[in-house]
Design brief:
single chain; 5-stranded mixed sheet; 339 residues; 10 helices
């Protein structure tokens, strides 16, 4: 008997819905919110309002694209957290109503665990390799930077994490200092391809163990640019490509140094990448080059599965459904949520 899961994602500024049947993705629909661009960052109240406008048409589109009716759904998986509370409330409330009306199970999903499980999405006509357990996952996004030991689909342990800012934030804040549009990470990546990554050197943190820190790097970049502009007001514009390349290299070096250490410490050569920053071409290339050097088996997600999406929520729901891990109707979203 087949199992069909509706997944709903609303943790930040993307309203998404997807349908998975027996682990195979039938549809994935995302509505983006361009309203935040003019503010240089996500405005929580505006995000919540946009989710309210988008949730019904997005779910409807996902069901139609999958060729299923609401009554064909066996369970609803939704992002409980972490994320923006107002945004999470919209997705959680819709999921609870959808499940209650049809008397089907409700499944809560941890947003970050779902990012990791994108590697297990099946797609019709495609046969992509999947990591065997255990494996390490470098999970990097705008709000999180973690190294996760994955022992099973639902058994994960954070073995390294940022103690302050995330890698994605370092990209975006650096981009803002350089006068690039929001979100800045993709613009840094684009210009870095045209620059010399060895042109400028920035300080790297000395944090023991497998934890990360990016606040010092942001400060280093800020002071460097300030001092250079005192000498030459046109410094940033004249050196923008090299600055992007050098900043990107530094961030990737920081990420990779700890990942290499983790792989050595745990004796694991299966390495996966996940999260929004996993779309960065420099990071993807570096992972691949290290794989050749260190005989790693690497797993890099499709670009459409790097940013927030509901396919990852639906596949996580599918694995939880198999173990009958359901949530009560009185469940509430959490802005911060333990792994």
């Amino acid at each position: 008997m087949s199992t069909t899961i509706l997944g709903i994602e609303s943790s930040c500024d993307d309203t998404a819905a997807a349908v998975v049947r027996d682990g195979v993705l039938l549809s994935s629909v995302i509505a983006n919110q361009d309203v935040h661009i003019q503010y240089g960052g996500v405005v929580p109240e505006l995000a919540s309002r946009a989710h309210q406008q988008n949730i019904v048409p997005v779910v409807d589109a996902a069901l139609k694209k999958a060729g299923v009716q609401g009554n064909d759904i066996d369970a609803v998986a939704f992002t409980r957290g972490p994320g923006l509370l107002g945004s999470l409330l919209v997705g959680t409330s819709f999921a609870k109503g959808f499940a209650l009306v049809r008397n089907i199970p409700l499944i809560e999903v941890h947003h970050l665990q779902a990012h990791i499980l994108v590697h297990f999405i099946e797609q019709e006509g495609l046969s992509l390799p999947k990591p065997e357990f255990p494996f390490l996952c470098l999970l990097v996004s705008g709000g999180h930077s973690q190294i996760v030991l994955v022992r099973d689909h639902l058994e994960m342990e954070i073995i390294g994490k940022t103690i302050d800012d995330a890698a994605g934030e370092a990209f975006d804040k650096s981009a803002k200092l350089l006068g690039l549009p929001y979100p800045g990470g993709p613009f840094v990546d684009k210009l870095a391809k045209l620059g010399d990554e060895t042109r400028f050197a920035f300080s790297k943190p000395r944090i023991p163990g497998l934890d990360y820190s990016f606040s010092g790097l942001k400060t280093s970049i800020l002071y460097f640019l300030r001092d250079q502009q005192k000498l030459n007001p046109g410094f940033i514009e004249e050196n923008k490509n090299d600055l992007c390349a050098s900043i990107q290299k530094t961030i990737i070096d920081i990420l990779m140094d700890k990942l290499i250490k983790a792989a050595s410490d745990y004796g694991i050569s299966r390495i996966a990448l996940a999260g929004g920053v996993s779309a960065n071409s420099g990071l993807r290339n570096r992972i691949e080059s290290e794989a050749i050097k260190r005989n790693w088996d690497t797993f890099i997600p499709e670009f459409r599965f790097t940013t927030d999406n509901a396919a990852m929520i639906a596949i996580t729901g599918y694995f939880k459904y198999g173990k009958k891990i359901f949530a009560p109707q009185n469940i509430s979203p959490l802005a911060r949520m333990e792994f």
